[in-house]
């Protein structure tokens, strides 16, 4: 374990806070750790009864490119229930609601510099509706065959980490349920 000696906020924004900590390492040496505090998030793998996945495509400014992703979003308030966040984000981004949600665990997205945790859900029993994305989100909904999306994750065509993790966990959940 590393022991924190001091901690200073070096940036506080709308979404993120960045800290610079001075720490003592396990071997007794001193070091600096800069890290991002993130409120947490959810990502949903929405699968239709006929084996299609509802995906979203959106431009991601930090990488200056569009990505094909599963719907996702951050917690609106500290302590928000991940399932309630998942329900809200699925409907906001895609317009779909789901009859059932299966928790697929969580992932640490970038533990080398952030505490972000994303909770993953499989959503089934989907009903289409009208999406209502945040005003700063320009999202295009895409519907693709689940097996094809799995192959895109394996081939590297899909590079978004939460999407790869969510799709692969859903794939193995379906195998466990003998649906594949």
From TrEMBL:
GO CC annotations on file: cytosol
GO molecular function: hydrolase activity
Keywords: Hydrolase
Protein name, UniProt field: ADP-ribose pyrophosphatase
Cofactor(s), names only, from the UniProt record: Mg(2+)
Domain spans labelled Nudix hydrolase: 36-166
Biological processes annotated in GO: nucleoside phosphate metabolic process; ribose phosphate metabolic process
């Amino acid at each position: 374990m590393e022991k924190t000696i001091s901690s200073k906020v070096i940036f506080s924004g709308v979404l993120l806070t960045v800290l610079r900590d001075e720490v003592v390492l396990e071997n007794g040496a001193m070091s600096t750790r800069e890290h991002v505090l993130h409120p947490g998030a959810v990502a949903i793998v929405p699968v239709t009864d006929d084996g299609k996945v509802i995906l979203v495509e959106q431009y991601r400014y930090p990488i200056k490119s569009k990505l094909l992703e599963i719907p996702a979003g951050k917690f609106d308030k500290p302590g928000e229930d991940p399932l309630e966040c998942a329900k809200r984000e699925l409907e906001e981004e895609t317009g779909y609601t789901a009859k059932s949600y299966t928790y697929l665990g969580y992932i640490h997205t970038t533990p080398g510099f952030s505490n972000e945790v994303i909770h993953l859900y499989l959503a089934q029993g989907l009903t289409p509706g009208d999406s209502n994305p945040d005003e700063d989100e320009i999202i295009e909904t895409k519907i693709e065959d689940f097996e094809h999306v799995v192959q895109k994750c394996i081939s590297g065509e899909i590079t978004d980490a939460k999407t790869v993790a969510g799709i692969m966990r859903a794939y193995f959940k379906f195998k466990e349920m003998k649906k594949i």
